[in-house]
Amino acid sequence: MIPRVMMREDALGFTLFGAVGFDHVVRLRREGNSFIDRINKKDISVDLSSVLPRDVSTLSLLLRWICYASSAGKRLHFSSLPPTLLEMSKVCGISDLLSE
User: Fold this and answer.
1) What pLDDT sits at residue 3?
2) Which residues are 72's β-sheet partners?
3) Which of 37, 52, 88, 89 could join 95 in a cystine, given CB atoms 3.0 to 4.6 angstroms apart?
4) pTM for the predicted model, two decimal places
5) Residue 1 lies in a domain
6) Concatenated DSSP letters for 42-53?
7) Percent of the chain at pLDDT above 70?
8) Is 16 contained in some domain?
9) Share above pLDDT 90 across residues of the chain, in percent, rounded to a whole number
10) Which CA distances in Å does 28 have to 61, 91, 93, 97?
């Protein structure tokens, strides 16, 4: 069974859950942008320990959140990056953007 894709806000930032793919990223981008707007901190933690990336769209989603947060004067800190996402980011030459 594929876990439901969802997000949850917490004291440090937010957590992403589930098997993320192309069919989820538009909704997740909007939800993440809303979390970024609501969180009254300059440094926001994004927990990825429960993410199962299905394709490169997950990497694209994280990059869009980085850009959005930066435009709001905030910075995202990703924790527990799944190995497949880390490998994709290395291949693309952007692993430093996602480093913990």
Assistant:
1) 60
2) none
3) 89
4) 0.92
5) no
6) SEEEEEEEEE--
7) 96
8) yes
9) 85
10) 8, 24, 24, 19
Paired tokens of 68: 């959005």
Residue 52 lies in a domain: yes
Identify the pLDDT of residue 4: 78
Angle 57-71/83-92 helices, nearest 10 degrees? 70
Q: Around Cβ 36, how many Cβ atoms within 10 Å?
A: 21
Taking the C-alpha atoms of residue 17 and residue 77, their distance in angstroms, rounded to an integer, is 16
CATH code of the domain containing 75: 3.30.750.24
Instruction: Tokens 């989603």: give the residue.
Output: 61
φ and ψ at residue 98, rounded to 5 degrees: -105, 0
**Is the pLDDT confidence value at 2 over 60?**
no
